[in-house]
Design a protein that fits this description.
mainly alpha; 58% helix; 8 helices
Amino acid sequence: MANRMKEDEKNEKIIRGLLKLPANRRCINCNNLGPQYVCTNFWTFICTNCSGMHREFTHRVKSISMAKFTSQEVIALQEGGNERAKLIYFKDWDPQRHSFPDSSNIDRIREFIKHVYVDRRYTGERGTDRPPRVKSDREDSNENRMADSYHGSSRSPPYEDRYDRRYNERLSSGGRNDETNFRYQVMKIKVLYMLMVTTREVLATLKW
């Protein structure tokens, strides 16, 4: 029992010493002076309001004055702390574009914690959802040349070939009536197209 008390006193003394470090004197989230809690998910020193918001995200929070810390937790805090956490979670943080929330603005704190620790927006990590890639002028030019070459020949563009293959694959799994109906519809489209072309040529001749 006595050894346990001595260990608790030792751990508390170490934590109080860590609180005196410049980076740990203020809450890592809202910059409020004198943090009284530790978030053990990220080993950061935080204020009372921020501790409540962290709990909303099921992050584990411990009071420095009320809770007991194990030796393993103290070691983790020594290796972590606000300075270490900023290197990880604020790596891409731009103070010119972003600002820390006010300690009295609960909604802003909630949003901040979600962006920083849940969404990990400023860690520099690349997510699986990539934004649409903008095509270069060269790629557009190449695609246009390919489309022109197909239009100038009897071949169909590659996307039409893929469509025909997929459609034929679906037909092969259906009944014979579906295939007959499909061919009939294709023939109708071809006839209509030929009529349109012929009409256009006749009109062009009359205009001439």
